Amino acid sequence: MENYKLSGDKAGLLKVISYYHIHSDEMTEAEKDIHEKLLKDEKMNIYLLEQNYVDGWDTYDSMVVIAKSEEEARKIHPSEYVTHVSNDMWMETDKGGCEYSYDGEFRGNDWVNYLDRDKIKVTLLGVADSEQFAGVVCTSFNAG
After folding, report:
1. pLDDT tens over the chain, length 144 residues
2. Maximal C-alpha separation, the chain
3. Cα–Cα dist 86/108, whole Å
4. CA-derived radius of gyration, the chain
């Protein structure tokens, strides 16, 4: 992993690592190495994100995240299935590595659209310690 070079959106890469970490027993050595390279020397904050723009049943109204900045926090989606952004749309990646748009009749109506993320209220809660993983800490989902 010594020759590994970062490219693209760090938050998206961390989200992909988080997704696979959630669905496996523990982080692989390669994932730990990538995580350390991404977060080395970067102060991470804890944020509360709230929205009432998309409401009703089967929607998220808030989440707590760990991110480098308020802008990076706004780029995090509460669903564990959304892994990154492409063409200004939330995207998901399945375990086989295939990408799908999170927009559609049955998906994508549970949080603000990527282009509307300025409607999210962000509150700084504190500073994360170096052992905390970037991404979603917890969410509030209104199941119906």
Report:
1. 233 333 445 555 555 555 555 455 566 777 666 666 665 556 899 999 999 999 889 999 999 999 999 999 999 999 988 888 888 989 888 888 888 887 655 566 899 999 999 999 999 999 998 788 889 999 999 998
2. 48
3. 14
4. 15
89-94, long-range: CB < 8 A, 24+ apart:
89/113, 89/114, 90/114, 93/16, 93/19
Between CA 139 and CA 66 the distance in angstroms is 12
Taken in order 111, 113, 119, 125, the sign of the CA dihedral is positive
- Residue 25 confidence (pLDDT): 54
Query: What is the distance between the terminal CA atoms of the chain, rounded to a whole angstrom?
Result: 45
Query: Distance between CA 122 and CA 12 in Å, rounded?
Result: 19
Using CA atoms, how far residue 50 sits from 1, 31, 82, 112, 125, in Å, is 37, 30, 18, 10, 13
| Residues 126/44, Cβ–Cβ less than 8 Å | no
Q: How far apart are CA 110 and CA 5, in angstroms?
A: 34
